[in-house]
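Q: How would the structure tokens look for this protein?
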Amino acid sequence: MEPLQSLLGDAGIRHFGICRFTDTLPLLECRAKSRIPAGAQSVIVCLFPYYTGESPVANLSKYARVPDYHLVVGDLLKQACLKLRDAFPSEQFAAFADNSPIREVHAARMAGLGVVGMNGLLIHERFGSFCFIGEIVSTLRLPYSAPSSGTCRQCGRCRAVCPGQAFDENGYFLKERCLSFLTQKKGELTGEQRRKIQKSGVIWGCDRCQDICVHNRDLPITDIPAFLEDNVFRIDADLLSRPIDRYAFAYRPKSVLYRNLGIMEDEMCDTTPMVPAPKQENKD
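A: Here is the predicted structure in token form.
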């Protein structure tokens, strides 16, 4: 494990675990599935914490405030694969980030990197749920990490606070109700969908289930230098007048972001707060 830790560390990857490839089955159906090496034995599951602190002016999800993780994580995994191929020339290595046939949260749990919260997100002991996940699938047989056991605290706060009530009575996640999904949806929205976005005050994404999670208290700032450069905390017309290609929210046309900005200014929307304001003390 020490040589592997050194190789990955040299590539900028400090947090990882290893599980059997067979423990990640069944794979998800996607184009990237064809890149899985024949005879794959191991999956090196890597975590990339992205928490950069709080901001009172922020109107977008924390994951989108940092430079596009597809580019940052992809580059780190690419560098790691180059070093691994040099060290093990007879083995194959294939990297995946987001667009992956690997069920990432499940693989991370099997690699001992954390438990799964009631909101379906991985919760790392140190970094909470504000982590991106990437994988390197290899034909190299490696010593496997012990899978994480147990659960989160099961307090249910994440589901109770969900603006879109995206979890049904059986706990199944309904993507089409998720506020993050609505802020990214192209085209026209229903009046109810527009009201949900306006009440949230968020132009892109949603962190409600993470912000309220007791496992996300007193988190350290990310130790990945690229995530601390050129952070964006607020989407506005001035920002959208400039190139935004290096951020994850650029994957949708700017028209979606302009639409959401317009929703915030729409006086026809119901502006009742999503969460009741705390009661004021009677000073009479």
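The chain is about 25% helix and 10% strand.

The chain has two domains: 2-138, 164-205+235-264.

Upvote if useful.
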